[in-house]
Please model this.
Amino acid sequence: MLDKLMNLREEVKERLNSADSIQSIMDTKVEYLGKKGKLTDILKEMGKLSAEERPKMGKVANEIRDYLEGSIEEKMTELKEAEKQATIEKEYLDVTIPKKQKDIGHLHPLAETKRQLEDLFLSMGFKVLDGPEIETVENNFDLLNSPLDHPSRDMSDTFYMDKDHVLRSHTSPVQIRAMKEYGAPLKMISAGRTFRNDEVDDTHSPMFHQIEGLVVDKNISIANLKSTIKTVLIELFGQELDTRFRPHYFPFTEPSFEVDVTCTNCGGKGCEKCNGTGWSMELLGCGMVHPNVLRNCGIDPEVYTGFAFGMGLDRLVMVKHDINNLRLLFDNDKRFLDQF
Ligand code: PHE
Model:
């Protein structure tokens, strides 16, 4: 029996030495120390021993059991520790590695300026409206008091869909739609795409953007027109800016003006960019709404007056960001757009 116990000890020793997983140690524990385990089997034979051998053997058996339990426990702890270490190594995180840069998009400079202007006008009590890009000839020309022989109506200047529909050549037809729908008094703006039969160059494109505004009420005068436009341009370009109103002609306004702003490059001193004039190229057309236009939309010009203005949004963005080529705004070149 002593031999059996000694063998048992050796067996377990070997099993533990070669054990490489916690599971195999658990198995060993059950196999040797379990209720139906090998040690239990041996101990069952104790009954056969003589009365004097029994306590001696009992003592040895206890020692062996303690030894087995102890060594199994020890090996178990060792393996658990190793496993933990392995996990730590596997899941090691180097917090000093620079993170992958994600490109976060942003608004196109045109969209940004458009929204900035819409917010400004909203804060001044204007409605922000939309109109269709395919417009009736009536809204685009006739009701805007543009006579049949006006050059802008020419086939070579405007894209005709059919004889009654055009790709709108300006945003002014949205004024007409607004007056017909809401009547007077009215304060509205509308921004969007416009189309003209122009060759592409640094400052021209067959598709461009305008923002249009209209105010109709009692006692509206040129003073209201000038102060509104100055407020808007100062918001866009800053306090130091000066404005200049030059007489001009539009069929739908009378009198009409074109507006220049101080050259953003030289601040008005005169440089090569502004051809020595001190003024940036015309940004905006405006004027007092022609009585015929009001009448065409069912508003009595004896009771109401109004002013209207239209600006090239692309041109505003070009002046604001010092961009020298209109094409850059439509090319979608990421290297260009990333600068904003
Ligand atoms: N529609 C004119 C243009 O395209 C601009 C404008 C709008 C002028 C409103 C006066 C009043 O040039």
User: Anything to note?
Assistant: The chain has a mean pLDDT of 90. Residues 170, 172, 212, 250, 253, 256, 285-287, 308-310 surround phenylalanine (CB under 6 Å). The chain is about 40% helix and 20% strand. The first strand starts at residue 127 and ends at 129.
